[in-house]
Each structure stands twice: as structure tokens, then as C-alpha cells.
Amino acid sequence: MNWYWFVIFGLLIAMFGWYLSSTAGRLDRLHRRIETATFALDSQLLRRSSIAIELSVAGVLDPASSEVLAETAHDARLATDSPMEVRIPIESALSEVLIQALDDPEEVGFLRQDSLTADLIDELEAAIRRVELSRQFLNDAVDACLRIRDNNLVHWFRLAGHTPLPQAWIMVDRMPEGLTYAGA
Asked: Would you kindly state where each structural domain of the chain is located, as residue ranges?
């Protein structure tokens, strides 16, 4: 009869080991997904700033808006290698400048009359949407990872290894009203 207890105990240990192994594997996949999503967000932010620079030098905006947009977009391009704490306010500032410059649907509709400017505005709209989606995808992966890492077993058995805690990107990335207006 004692061998039943050894079998049950062995099965419990095997199930516990399987749970730990699957949790560690899930954490590893989430960390890779976060890394991939971070690279995707970086490329989309770079694309957005490049298009914003093109729009600022196209000569279609008023000189003050063009100057501010060019400076802010240039700062965003220079901040690509900066730490997240430095980069997020710069990217948010670019979003704010884009919102200020392109928030009027009538003005954007007037800008769209030129085919080259319309193409630039369409590219910018697509880039802003991709930034929103990339940031949301990254933040969803970070939330899932933090929920798993909050488990005591993950801490006790060091299932996350020495990987630092991921951080969510909290920034302004609202689409300017002028770009979402259906009549534009």
C-alpha cells in the first residue's frame, strides 16, 4: 500500500514541475513578444516622425506650425536610441504638435486638394494608426507578462530569470480630428 503514496506523490511532483515549466515557457514567449512589439513600435514611431518632417518641409502648413513640427519631429528622430523615460515625452510632444496642426477638418480638407499633400496626409494618418496599434499590442503583452510575474511561484522559483520588469508605453497618440473627419 505504501507504493500508492509514492505514485501519487510522484504524480503531484510531475504535475507541479509541468506547471512551472509551462509558466516559464509562457513568460519566455511573452518577453519575446514584448521585444518584437517594442521593435515594431520603434519602427512605426520613426516612420511617423519621418512623414511629419516631410509634411513640415512641404510648405503647406503655416510657417509657425511647420517650424514647430519640424523641430519636434527631428527631436523624436534623435531620441530613437534614448531610454524609454526620455523618449515617451518627446513622442507625446510630437503627437500634441500633430494634433494642433491637423485638428481642423476644414483645413485638412483644403490641404488634401493637392494630390502630393493628400498622399503625405494619408501616409501620416496610416503611420499614426500603426503607432496606436503597435503601442496597444505592446501594452497588452506587458500587462499579460506583469500579471504572470505577479504570481508568488514565479518569484520563488525565479521563472523570469534576470529579465527586468517590462514597462508599458503611456503616451499621447490620439489621431488628430482633421484626419478622422469623414468629409475630408
From this structure: 2-180
| Neighbouring C-beta atoms of residue 66, cutoff 10 Å | 17
Q: Show Cβ contacts of residue 10 under 8 Å, excluding neighbours closer than 6 positions.
A: none
pTM: 0.90
Q: Which residue has the cell 520563488?
A: 156
Say how many CA atoms lie within 13 Å of 72 toward its Cβ: 26
Measuring CA to CA, which residue among 171, 166, 167, 146 is closest to residue 79? 171
* pLDDT tens-digit series, residues 41-50: 999 999 999 9
Asked if 167 contacts 85 with a C-beta cutoff of 8 angstroms, the reply is no
Distance (Å, whole) CA 152 – CA 29: 19
Q: What pLDDT does 184 receive?
A: 39
